[in-house]
Amino acid sequence: MNSRINVVPYDASLQKLASSFHSGNSYLDRFLCDPISLDDGFGKTYIFLSSDNKMIIGYYNLGTGYIEENDDGIIRKIGGAVHINCFALDEKFHGVLQTVTNDGVKVNLSDILLDDCLERIENMRREYVGFAFVTLNSTKEGYSLYLRNGFENLEEDMNFAIEDSDQECIILWIWRCRYKKFEE
């Protein structure tokens, strides 16, 4: 289904569009204007452009990490992870219904962008680098999006590194990029 959306790697030539992007979260809005959004050492940013390439509808940034497990006081890595560092949709598109599946499931534009993100991650796992998990730190506003797409709260004995900006977020994960694909 994601073949209908225009998602491209973010580069400096597109950064001029970032000033008109407003997700409702100032950190996520500033990220696109910050040079770190273009820094491959932090992660790789992909933007969802309008069909005329004049507006950023949404974006995500992917990085790497791992999950640790605390087993009776012994901390050990249990698997590599691709981390969704940032994920946002312009507030003009929040709650925009795209389709209803044969099962009656409503699919919003945010679900379509997340599907593109997870397909890209799965392709990376299949073609380029092995890992076991996809992780993210969700805002309260994004929590239902991730839950309806197969993410779960991280188990109490598991952990991964977080940034200061993630202190108010909900730590989520999904195993081996196991996600639902939307069927019309």
Provide an overview of this structure.
- The chain is an alpha+beta fold and 184 residues long.
- It has one domain: Gcn5-related N-acetyltransferase (GNAT) (Aminopeptidase, 3-Layer(aba) Sandwich).
- Helices cover 18% and strands 35% of the residues.
- The protein is built from 3 helices and 10 strands.
- It has helices spanning 26-33, 109-127, 143-148; strands spanning 6-9, 44-49, 56-71, 74-89, 97-100, 106-108, 133-138, 152-153, 158-159, 170-175.
- Strands 1, 2, 3, 4, 7, 8, 9 and 10 form an 8-stranded mixed β-sheet that branches.
- A hairpin with a 6-residue loop joins strand 2 (44-49) and strand 3.
- The longest helix is centred in the middle third of the chain and has 19 residues, at 109-127.
Number of DSSP strand runs: 10
User: What's the CATH first level?
Assistant: Alpha Beta
Please state the CA-atom Rg, rounded to the nearest Å: 16 Å
- Judging by the overall fold, what is the CATH architecture? 3-Layer(aba) Sandwich
Q: Give the overall pLDDT as a whole number.
A: 91
Q: Helical amount among residues, as a percent range?
A: 10-25%
Quaternary state of this entry equals single chain
Structural class: alpha+beta
Shape: globular
